[in-house]
Amino acid sequence: MGSSKGYNSKTGRWSYDCDSCGNLGASRVKCPIRYCSTTQLCPSCVTSTGWRKKETHANCYASHERLENERLQFLKENANKWTVVSAWGSWADWVPNGQVGVCAYLGGNPAGRTGEPAYFLVPQDEYADQGRHNFIIDESRHPRFDNDPTELVSKSLVVEVSA
């Protein structure tokens, strides 16, 4: 599944290749329950595969439901912990090399964020090993900034703050 295009000599235009049969003239088709990735199918393959029918995506729905339940359980278990909602790499002026700068909220729930955000530094290797859900901050290991570090303009200031 990709975004491959080819020149259609019949229409004189560039068009998508069908992911199923490879013919030109495909269009992007979304999963009816918005779970699996968008695919490119020509009209005959849309009909023959039943791509737009919800029955075709029964497994998608079960997976979606299971993952949503996992996400809700994760949010419930970590309601009183700092949960990362956004991150910056060392490309940001305020993040030292080998670190990830993160913004976290208590509970991390994107729909119901309350309170003020907190900013932390996390070792890059540790952040890369996070699981399926958001990263949980361990305040004993991850240094916290008193103010919004995105306002800092120099990495030398960050090194002083985290030392």
How are the SSEs ordered, and which strands pair?
Layout: E1 5-8, E2 13-17, E3 24-29, E4 39-41, H1 43-49, H2 58-77, E5 82-88, E6 99-106, E7 118-123, H3 124-128, E8 144-145, H4 155-162
Describe the overall structure.
- The protein is of the alpha+beta class.
- It folds into 2 domains: 5-59, no CATH class; 78-162, no CATH class.
- It is 25% helix and 25% strand.
- The chain contains 4 helices and 8 strands; from the N terminus they run ββββααβββαβα.
- The protein has helices at residues 43-49, 58-77, 124-128, 155-162, and strands at residues 5-8, 13-17, 24-29, 39-41, 82-88, 99-106, 118-123, 144-145.
- The protein has a 4-stranded antiparallel beta sheet. Strands 5-6-7-8 form a 4-stranded antiparallel beta sheet.
- The termini are far apart.
- The mean pLDDT is 79.
In a nutshell, what does this entry contain?
The chain has four helices and eight strands. By secondary structure, the protein is an alpha+beta fold.
Principal-axes shape call: elongated
Roughly how much helix do the residues carry, as a percent range?
10-25%
Largest β sheet strand count, sense and barrel closure: 4 strands, antiparallel
Count of helical stretches: 4
User: Can you give the mean pLDDT?
Assistant: 79
Q: How far apart are the first and last residues' alpha carbons, in Å? A: 47 Å
Strand order of the largest sheet: 1-2-3-4
Rg over CA atoms: 23 Å
- Class by alpha and beta content: alpha+beta
**Oligomeric assembly:** single chain
The tally of structural domains comes to: 2
Give the SSE string: EEEEHHEEEHEH
Q: Tell me the fraction of residues in β-strands, as a range.
A: 25-35%
